[in-house]
Amino acid sequence: MSLFLETLIGGLLAGTMYSLVAIGFVLIYKASGVFNFAQGSILLFSALLLVTLHEAGLPFVLSAALTMLVLIAGAVVIEHTVLRPLANRSPMTLFMATLGLSYVVEGTAQGLMGAQVHALDLGIEDVPIFFGDVLVSQFDLIAATTAGTLALVLALLFNRTRIGISLRAVADDTRAALSIGINLNRIWQIVWAVAGMVGLVAGVMWGARQGVQFSLSLVVLKALPVLIIGGFTSIGGAIVGGLIVGAAENLAETYIGPFIGGGITPWFPYVLAIAFLYVRPAGLFGERALERV
Amino acid sequence: MPRRARAGLAIPLLLLLAFVGVPLVGTEYWIGAILLPFLVLSLAGLGLNLLTGYAGQTSIGSGGFMAVGAFATFGFVVHGGVPLPLALLLAGLAAAGAGLVFGLPSDRIKGFYLMVSSLAAQFFFEWLFQKFPWFYNYGSSGTIALPRIAVFGLDVGSTLGRYYLTLTIVAGLTWFAANLMRSQTGRSFMAVRDMDTAAAVIGIPVYRAKLLAFAVSSFYLGIAGALWAFAYLGSASVQSFGISRSFQILFIIIIGGMGSIAGNFIGAAFISLLPLAIDHVAQALFAGHVDAGLLQNIEKAVFGVLIIWFLIKEPDGLARLFQTIGARLANWLRP
C-alpha cells in the first residue's frame, strides 16, 4: 500500500511540472487560437539565458529580470513578424509557423549560448521527506507549490485586472472585442510575454531538475497529452491534466511496465490521451465546438 | 501548347535524365550522398503528403512508420529468409497496417487532437524497436544492416546499384500516387480535407477515406524507411527515425507544397541542398573557422525563418511558386 501511495504522490508531484509547461500553452491558445509549439523552445531559451547570465557573474535576481526583459522584447518581435502577417489563417498554418519559430529560437539559443549542459542550482536540497512511511521528494513539493502559486497569480490576473478582462473578451469573441476598441495586437504581445514568463518558471524548475540542456525543449511533447486531457482552453484543466498524466505514467511504469519490458513512460501518456479522447473528445474542461456546413 | 501536353513531355525527360544522364556525369559522392537521400526523402514526403496534404490529417509520426518499414524489411529478410523485393513489399504492408491502427482514432478525433495519435505511434515504435532485441537480431548495438542487397539474384550493393533500385521504386510509387490522387479515391481524400462534415453530407464514406489515407501514407513511409536504412545509410538504428526525422519530412511538404506531387521532390531537394549551401557560404565567409555545432544551429535558425517566410508569402509552397514563374515565363515568351 505504501508503494502505491508513494508512486501516486511522486507521480502527482511530477505532474505539476507538466502542468507548468501546459499553462503556457493554454494562455496562448485562449488568446489567439494558436497551438504554440515554440513554447518548449522558449522554455529552453529562457532557462539557458538565465543560466548564462548567472554564470557570467550577475546575481540571480538580476539575471532573471534581464531574461524577462528579453522575453518581453521577444514577444513583441514575434507578434510583429509572425502573428500579424498570419492573422486569420487556418490554425494548422499557425501551428506550423510556431514549429518554424521553435527552430529559430532553438537555433539562436544554442548558437549564441552553446549546447553544453548547464547545472542550475536553486539552493533547494533534494532531500526525501517522510510522511509516516511514505517518502516524498522536497524538490517535488516546492515545484508543486510553485505551480499552484503561478496558477493563482494567473487566475487573479485574468479575473481582477483590466488586461485580464480584455484578454478574456478576445478569447470569447475576437470580433466583438475588436469592435469595442480592444487592441488585439497589444493583447497578443502581452499574452506571449506572460507565456514567456511562465516558460521561464517552468524552464527554471525543469532545468534545476535535469540540467539546462536541449532536451528541455522536448518537454513540449509531453505537454500535448496534458492539454488533450485537460482541454486547450482551461488553466485549471492544464493543472488537473498534468496531475493525471504524472500520476498515470508513474503508476503505469510501476504496475504495467514490468510485464512488457519497462520504460513505457515516453508513449504511455499519448495512449492515455487517446483513450480519454474516445470518451470526451473535447477534454475534461474543453469547450465542444459545433460544426456547420 | 496545352498544359497536359507540356507536362507529358517534362516527365519522360526527367526520367531520362535520372536513369541515363545522372549515372553518366554524377560522381560517387553526388549519387551516394546527395541524390540517394534526396530520392528517399522525396518518397517519404510523398507518403506524408498523401495523408496531410491530400487527406488533411496532420501527422508528426512519420519517423515511426519509417522505422516500421526498415525493421520489418530486416525482420523478413533475416528471420524469414524472404528475398528483398518481396520483403520490401511485405514491410510496406506492415507499415500500412501500423498506420491503419494509429489512424483508428481519426473517426472521433480531429486536427491537433489527432497529432497525439501520430506522436503515440512515433514514441511507441521507438520504444518497441529498442526494447526487444528480436527486432535487431540480438546485436549488441541495436543497429540493423542487410548482409547483401540483391534483387532477383542480381547484386545491387554498389552505389549505382542502390541508386537504380531507389530510383525505380520512387518512380513507380510516384506514378501510382499521381494516378491514385486523380481517381475517385484521391477526390474523396480532398473532399475530406476541405471539410469532412460536408464530405459526409454528400455521401463520401469519410472514415473509410481517412483510414485508407493512413494506410497508403504509411505504406509509402515504410518503403521510404527501408530504403533510408538499407539503400542510403547501410546500417540504421531507431535513432535514424527519431522525432526530428518526422519534423524534417513535415518541413519537406510545407516548403515543397501541400497537396502537390512535384512539391515533395522540390521540397526534398531544397532540404538536401540548403545545408550544403549554408556550409559553402560559411566556409567562404569565415574560411573554415566556424565550428560544426554553431553551423548546425545557424542552419536550424535559417530553416525556421524559411518555414515562417513560406507560410506567410507562399502557403502553397515552392511547387506553386515554380508554377507561377513558369506561367509568367510562358506568357512573356509568347509572341
TrEMBL record, chain A:
It comes from the Bacteria. The keyword Transport applies. Its main location: membrane. The chain crosses the membrane at residues 12-29, 34-54, 60-82, 94-115, 135-158, 187-206, 226-248, 255-279. It comes from Ancylobacter crimeensis. It is a multi-pass membrane protein. InterPro entries: ABC_transp_permease, BCAA_transport_permease. It holds the Pfam family BPD_transp_2. This is Branched-chain amino acid ABC transporter permease. It is found in: Cell membrane. CDD domains: TM_PBP1_LivH_like. Keywords: Amino-acid transport, Cell membrane, Membrane, Transmembrane, Transmembrane helix, Transport. Belongs to the binding-protein-dependent transport system permease family. LivHM subfamily.
Automatic annotation (TrEMBL), chain B:
Keywords: Cell membrane, Membrane, Transmembrane, Transmembrane helix. The chain crosses the membrane at residues 31-51, 58-78, 84-104, 111-129, 163-181, 211-235, 247-274. It comes from the Bacteria. It is found in: Cell membrane. The keyword Membrane applies. InterPro entries: ABC_transp_permease, LivM-like. It is a multi-pass membrane protein. PANTHER family: ABC TRANSPORTER PERMEASE PROTEIN, HIGH-AFFINITY BRANCHED-CHAIN AMINO ACID TRANSPORT SYSTEM PERMEASE. This is Branched-chain amino acid ABC transporter permease. It comes from Ancylobacter crimeensis.
